[in-house]
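Bug #77: duplicate submission created two jobs. Keeping one. Sequence:
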Amino acid sequence: MKSKKAEQKGIVMLRKRVFAVTAVALAVVAVAIAQSAKVYPGAKKFTPPDTEETREAAKQAPPGATQTIYLSDDSFEKVSAFYNGVGKAYTLPGMERGAKLPNGQVMKIAFFIFDGATDLGSSKSWAKIQRPYVGGVEMKDSGPDYKDIRDVTAITIIERK
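Kept job's structure:
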């Protein structure tokens, strides 16, 4: 028969093990949550119309990736500031800044990486923030023809498994 002291020592050791296992499990969950993208508060999920242009655009997504689009009436700067707080800003090499649409509106684009990767190609979780939303682009002899332009901030979240 175990002494009361030995029994208490066993209970204390069991509690320590349970605590250690719980702490490790919580750490794993925290890392998983930190690596996944957060949706901007108040943004609404957007499903583009099923057209040839949107199917072509979907093919441009990285292999094995899911792409979810959200729209917000909030400014590009406000949405970008939110994502700057939860991810790492990334500048796409060679990307033209401030491209103008035919209506004169300047297109603003920013990228944010959520999983600590060094670039978009190696990231499994990142977002593109853009204002205005452009539903499609058709290349013509005179240059790009932008379709479905909306004065909202688009948040495109890309996630790969």
